[in-house]
Automatic annotation (TrEMBL):
<dbReference type="InterPro" id="IPR052021">
    <property type="entry name" value="Type-I_RS_S_subunit"/>
</dbReference>
<keyword id="KW-0680">Restriction system</keyword>
<keyword id="KW-0378">Hydrolase</keyword>
<protein>
    <submittedName>
        <fullName>Restriction endonuclease subunit S</fullName>
    </submittedName>
</protein>
<comment type="similarity">
    <text>Belongs to the type-I restriction system S methylase family.</text>
</comment>
<dbReference type="InterPro" id="IPR044946">
    <property type="entry name" value="Restrct_endonuc_typeI_TRD_sf"/>
</dbReference>
<feature type="domain" description="Type I restriction modification DNA specificity">
    <location>
        <begin position="17"/>
        <end position="159"/>
    </location>
</feature>
<keyword id="KW-0238">DNA-binding</keyword>
<dbReference type="GO" id="GO:0004519">
    <property type="term" value="F:endonuclease activity"/>
</dbReference>
<keyword id="KW-0255">Endonuclease</keyword>
<dbReference type="Pfam" id="PF01420">
    <property type="entry name" value="Methylase_S"/>
</dbReference>
<keyword id="KW-0540">Nuclease</keyword>
<dbReference type="InterPro" id="IPR000055">
    <property type="entry name" value="Restrct_endonuc_typeI_TRD"/>
</dbReference>
Length: 161
């Protein structure tokens, strides 16, 4: 995985140099909308994703489409990276990466691999959080769109686990 995500190992016929840009140059980083805790349900239609690994609850509406990368904005697990394959409600402690201009699956695996470094961006101690400016400035090194096979291979490996 390290070899594929760093560009050290390349698939045959791909020689185009990888590009380096700030995350904000290849996608829109959006912060979710906080729901009143009283509106959360135990069995709603859509997960409410906030600052953790598990949903905060459920809600009958969604504000984010499926196949979206999330990064936890606040709480003890801020910096946690996830890829949601279903529609969901992005809460106030959740960043979503929208309008991604490179292979979405590659970007997810790249960030998942860098998750410990992303978690180091946290500020504060009572309720730690990661500022949008810090996430926006993260440097991404990525291949051309034609080399999307990397994301496909890593997805296939992930499904086997």
């Amino acid at each position: 995985m390290n070899e594929l995500l760093s560009g050290k190992t390349r698939f045959a016929n791909f020689t185009t140099p990888w590009q380096e840009v700030k995350l904000a140059d290849i996608c829109d980083i959006q912060k979710g909308q906080q729901l009143n805790k009283l509106n959360l349900q135990e069995n709603g239609k859509f997960s409410v994703i906030n600052g953790g690994i598990e949903p905060s609850g459920y809600y009958d509406e969604f504000n984010t489409q499926e196949n979206t990368i999330t990064i936890s904005e606040g709480g003890n697990l801020c910096g946690y990276v996830n890829f949601l394959t279903t529609k969901f409600w992005s809460g106030g402690h959740c960043y979503t990466l929208q309008n991604v201009k490179i292979d979405n699956k590659f970007l997810y695996f790249y960030f998942k691999y860098q998750e410990k470094d992303i978690m180091k961006l946290r500020l504060g101690s009572g309720l730690p959080n990661i500022q949008k400016g810090s996430i926006s400035a993260v440097i991404i090194k990525y291949p051309s769109l034609e080399e999307k096979k990397i994301g496909e291979v890593l997805s296939a490996c992930d499904e086997c686990l």
